[in-house]
Amino acid sequence: MVAATSEEMVALSTTQVIIHPLVLLSVTDHAARVAKGGRKRVVGVLLGQDLGTSLNVANSFAVPFDEEESKADPSSSSSTTNPSSKNPTTWFLDHNFVESMGDMFKKVSAKEKLIGWYHTGPKLRSTDLEINEVFKRYCPRPVMVIVDVRPDRGIAKGSVTDAYFAIEEIKDDGTATQNTFMHVPSSIEAEESEEIGVEHLLRDIKDLSTGTLSTRVTDRLNSLRGLQARLSEISDYLQGVIKNDLPVNHQIIYNLQDIFNLLPNIDLSPTTTSQSAPVEKSLDGDVSMSSLTDIAAGAKDLTSLVLDRSRPLTTVTNDQLLVMYLSSLIRAVIALHGLVNNKLENQSAAAAIEQQNEDPTGTDQDILSRTKPSSDEKAKDSNSNKENSSSSRGL
């Protein structure tokens, strides 16, 4: 457990967790073999390199794990409980298997070390801190990655991976510390060899019946839905802070202020601006309530800001859209030209083959005509033979 002050939390929050596709394939296969369509989560070990500011997760292996789950769906938002449900705090993890497999992986690749663990959640559980303490025996700061392997999840729900570090949060008001998980950014990256393998795996399951235009429209729609979900989550958090239902997290407030400062001024009228006011601080460094109210109002009206001012945004970017349209049109014409040339070449080759099949003896006659001597060559040879015979008689 890392005792994190405000500065240490800021440094830890910038740690990037890089996950390779091989890990995702291994976790998906593990869940398909063990869970077998159920909601039971699986647990495994992550291998890679801890580079300080980033963690490179390159490999993984499954670990025998079992726990007692309640009959209610843990991912459900319902608050009803069943008194006959099992105790969800009872779990089993074979750490001897972790040690033996870790020793074997060291013999294969010495660079890949144990840097954390994963489970298929899809959300945090109450026993995750206890399981994380087990993995602290093998590395000083294990990273926990939740991989969402549900087939019914949508693209609008965001990334399939969420990375966390266990910290001991020291509060500014002097109250007791609290053990919790801190979310850190994660990304899926691949080397060239891995990209080739993933392309081969996805080639057979790619839906060729879906057009390019419909795919792009669907992607844009899912992106907008994801943006709307994030904005609603930000608005709900800020409203909870204003009502004193949630504690103030200064890092979140500063990040939101930076986001609002980066909003483009898409309103063409000179009397308005999209830049928000700076965050006001009191003498003790806390964020004032008026600033929280302003930020909450900005988060609530951000969706209407994007929708109502779409016309000025289109006016500013129409040149770029025209260039993109012309580029797509030129690529289409070039591709069509190549297709026509290929069609003509195929027709010519097919005609030549068909002509050869219709006259199969033509080639043999040509060969015989080239190999047989002509009449002029025969006459020339006979004259030379006569001269040779006459000269021999004279002698």
Automatic annotation (TrEMBL):
UniProtKB keywords: Proteasome
Stretches assigned to coiled coil: none
Domain MPN: 17-170
Region (Disordered): 66-87, 351-395
Gene Ontology BP annotations: proteasome-mediated ubiquitin-dependent protein catabolic process; system development
Basic and acidic residues biased stretches: 367-384
Skewed-composition ranges (Polar residues): 351-366
GO molecular-function terms, A-Z: metallopeptidase activity
Record GO cellular component, one term: proteasome regulatory particle, lid subcomplex
Residue ranges, compositional bias (Low complexity): 74-87, 385-395
Keyword DNA-binding: no
PROSITE patterns given in the database record: MPN
Pfam families cross-referenced by the UniProt entry: JAB, MitMem_reg
Family per record: Belongs to the peptidase M67A family.
Entry function: Acts as a regulatory subunit of the 26S proteasome which is involved in the ATP-dependent degradation of ubiquitinated proteins.
Protein name: MPN domain-containing protein
Lineage: Eukaryota, Fungi, Dikarya, Basidiomycota, Pucciniomycotina
